[in-house]
């Protein structure tokens, strides 16, 4: 039975929810060293406090490995305010497993919301009638990094929702020009991002900056007004500082730096050490791992042959080959639009490329200082990455979408099998939920295959590339909508 095309987005959301549920069930409570501090942060917020690095954890479940310090204390508190009403009472009542599953349930819902937001943002960046936004929804739904975080008590997804929404608002500003509503939306979303994760706040500032630049360009060309530009330049920073400035001032007071980092402690206690920036840049693992948002084993370092092989295959097939195809198509179909259209197109390219470059550079510097290289750190720029992947897939959808789907689901199956057959490191650790995990995985695979089938039907006659590589709407239309 052929499903209607309008079922694609609901199916993509369902796929995202089910895959995050798989991760939530496969991963035992407090399975990583980070999850216990994240849950403790929410517990301390429920108690009316903010955590301090040196004070350690107040919520100390018996079956978890507990960090000797509170190393998530450097994060802003918005995510923890969101989950505290669920986590706090359960932890207080002595139900640590229920507390972590409650936090994971919130992230499962956020993973579905992220698909909707990414699809909406892609529609505002791509030209009308493009097949790419539908493919973006599918790609985000199957994204391993999103699913792994969606099945954990981490704050990354909320930050990704804020920044992804900002890309859509900024795309609208490039196409139509700034107005008061867009300025307010950009400012509030940037404030939310900065109050969730510092890296997301940095990307948010860059996205807002490109939107402001677009407003300046349009005002100088007579296609826009200066008042919204002034509002964004003056009001935007004021809203962000009012929302999150106090927290970074607290970090500075407590640790001597805005990030709240404690690299000295990591060097002494976690076996980490700085390495030359050039070394990070030339290591193949950096570019196989960091942008590989679709690698299911990506939460852990590539210590085994299986994990390393999966990383290489998924990086090439799911990321770099589609991106290369998209780039080749962009070069092959390069057009020479009118001056105003060319300006808008360049601004759209800048909107996608500049924030991605800034975050990648930030993560490279972080790695050179002894930090880890994890795919989830690039979740704030998942939209540009997924737009590039989607643009590659629509070059040959009948061939590439099934292959892409098969590789992604095979990697999922391998990860589930490996996780469920690996005993816990210590017998007193919490354990996973194997039967519900397998049921959820089977349902997720079915939803993903159904989404892919609908996607193939929807792209049969619409194989468009993103607007950034195609002519924008006419100058007259853009002028009337600014």
Automatic annotation (TrEMBL):
Mode of membrane association: Multi-pass membrane protein
GO molecular function: pentosyltransferase activity
A GO CC annotation given for this chain: plasma membrane
Keywords: Cell membrane, Glycosyltransferase, Membrane, Signal, Transferase, Transmembrane, Transmembrane helix
InterPro entries the record matches: LipidA_mod_glycosyltrf_83 (IPR050297)
Primary localization: membrane
BP GO terms, sorted: lipopolysaccharide biosynthetic process
Subcellular location: Cell membrane
Segment forming the signal sequence: 1-23
Segments crossing the lipid bilayer: 101-122, 128-145, 198-217, 229-249, 306-327, 347-368, 374-394, 399-417, 437-456
PANTHER family on file: MANNOSYLTRANSFERASE YKCB-RELATED, MEMBRANE PROTEIN
Protein name per the record: Glycosyltransferase RgtA/B/C/D-like domain-containing protein
